[in-house]
Predict the structure.
Amino acid sequence: MSGTIYMIPCPIAEGEWERVLPAPNGDVMRSINYFVVENTRTARRFLSKVGMGRPIETLTFAELNEHTDLREVEQLIKPVLEGADCGVISEAGLPGVADPGAAIVAVAHRHGVKVVPLVGPSSILMALMASGQNGQSFAFNGYLPIKPAERVQALRRFEKRALTEGQAQIFIEAPYRNVKLFDDMLKNLAAESMLTVAVDISGEEEFIQTAPIKVWRSRKLPDMNKRPAIFIIGRA
């Protein structure tokens, strides 16, 4: 009989895991010996904070990240097919959402393996909750293109959808490119378009504000360099 795959959220920001995760998540984690993770070092640190009741060295870790050949995913699920439960852990937040963990879940469904999502923090939904933007119609667009011209083109495309359809457009960026992205938005979006900037969600230095582009242009730049952030474009 196959094991079960548990999608295990982890904190977005530094701090005690109990502050953002339900206690039963800890019970599930402590029952698992095999983990498929985006980053082994990060996952080991997280599980150490949870307190596994046994040495971390006794656990088995396999990495699934942007460098993993998708042909290798079938091997990652082999222990589950042999009966072992598996915990899937992202570097931050929800595994499988803007995260390579989705690949092993897709394989699990092909094999008829049960997948159980656990409750935890989603920076995407938490930013939307606190934004005042349209929570009934929204789209998560992931990461923007790296090339400047393509990035600006994507921003204008998102803005057009937000203004014509009223659909909130949510996206993220690599933390070290946040400042450049913000500058591109100030230079290329319409003055009346609404922009939400959500930085370090659930952390001690959390910053979430929504304002028209024309207001952002007159404000001091929020500190977002190398800090995880979510951006939302909408209409007034």
